[in-house]
Amino acid sequence: MSEPNERQYWLWVTRPDYYLEDDGSDRELLDPTHGADTGGWWTCHRDTKKGDLIFLWRTSPKKDIGYLIQAESDAYSIVDDNDQGWDYGCDFDVLFKFENPIHIKDLRGSPSFEEWGPLRGSFQKTTFKISLEYWNKINNLAANKNPGYQEIIELIQKEPLSEGIRLEEELENELVANLDVLKRFGHQLELYIDSTSGQIGRQFICKGNGGRIDLLCYDKTKKRYVVIELKNVRAGQNTFGQISNYMGWVQNRIAGNIPVIGIVISRGYDTRFESALNITDKISQIDVEDLGFVTAPPKRIQKLAEPKEKNTSPLGIKFTNSREAKTWLGKGDEFLKEAKYKEAILCYEEVLKKDPKNKWGWINKGLALAELKRPEDAMLCLKKAIEMYPKSAQVWLSKGIALICLNKFEDSIVALDKAIELKPKFANAWNYKGMALADMERNEEALIAIDRAIELNHKNIFALSNKGYILTQMGKYDEAVRAFDEAIKLDPQDAFSWHTKGDALDEQGKHDDAIQAYDKAIELNPKNAYSWNNKGYTLTKQGKYEKAIQAIDKAIELDANFADPWSNKGDIFSSLGKYDDAISFYDRAIELDPEDARTWNKKGSTLKSLGHLEDAEAAFAKARNLGYEE
Asked: CATH assignment of 165-291, given 3.30.430.20, 3.90.1010.10, 3.40.1350.10, 3.40.50.2000?
């Protein structure tokens, strides 16, 4: 593999804090096939140059090379007052995740690596420069373990820079030359120039913090600093965290009491970024297309609309297909989070056309099918994923989740136990096992599983909320509220924890406190019909019927096919003596959920009040058949 003289090769060494999530799974932000904006900044050697290629060595427990990375900038000094001992950093982008990583036993088992310095030194430094000889040897090992990788690395190495880097540079150049284009978005900006160092606000280095601000500006009219982050891809959770970090640094180091805002300029954004935007008015987003520049969109987006031509992409057809698969996967994931399951499935089918071995394509298609109650199709997808990745704990976890959606709780526990067998410290698998056990009303066992999840990851908000839910079901309301409070302390913006805390408080008869909790949940997620409905139900208990109807009508407006608010509205009208109206609301609830014994019983009581005794007895009988007990 011949290579341009200017390109260098490196090995970066990283601890589990940086390559694993809290639950022990691989860090999602390092996965180039999952969503967008996988880049950021990383500590590096001072000689690192833009376009250098890097292998990421993961220390114990992995002890392997798991990723191929490209430097998106030259190294820049971050020396200041940081307490990590960091000297240099560079921006990076993840190009490839090895499905079959290069383990330390692979290196020790090959005579070709007996004299390789990093191996002999047990990878004790943070960065190693790799000679072309050893670079090629490592790539040969990777190609032997990962079919198709040989072609991909050769295509990557034909280009000194990835197209993503080049296109973001073009965008930055255009914007610097035309800052006035932002006037129509309410910003009259000039590049900031530091009076002490003379550093200008383009690629502004955050010393002591790491990372570089794409553009640091000052708004002459509104008298505030403006941090601009440019992304030639969709903005995601990583983007939000990145710009928030930069804004905090500018506030502390430069702005003082002067306001600081942030602008993300990107090609759209995902649902996580959208959710993050809802909690602040200091960060806004502008689409690249809205600027009116001629800068080309990413090739992977072009390819969605253009016919394929052999060798038209500088990175080659297979690599482009992988990028296209990534784009479709991101779209599918957005639909999945929005509960638009049919649309999500269409996207995942495109993923699998481009990349038939895409694990997340098979997994998420299966989950979407499970949500649509198509068990056979869902299980076929997850079976396919398991056939390709039988030792992936994530695949077995996903099968368990799908089976929970299908109310097959015993089968779900079998799949989740397999995930735990493969990865005993897999907190998410323990958490979902607890959920499955709770659905089977095996609450004591459920608590044991949930507590294990929390023990493995004490910051697992989902598990803490589930613990509170199970304790509520067991009537242990004080303990439940404590669990919800722990979750809320970790994330005050978690609407689910506020909602379920409201449920526990309502069961305790603390109706005012419950309504406050529901109001907080609604503030965080105003489109959640469940929170509006439960608020209305609690207001009904207080006899505040007018406010209750307003809340319940909002729930119906948000989800007209949600049976509970119709039934609760029937209760209110029955209490007001408006029996005919109440019957019509109960009938609508029964139409949506014919198996709701409580609504049948309430209908019976209302019919009895109307003197329709025969019809009332029929409704009571139906309620008893469905398991209703006085």
From this structure: 3.40.1350.10
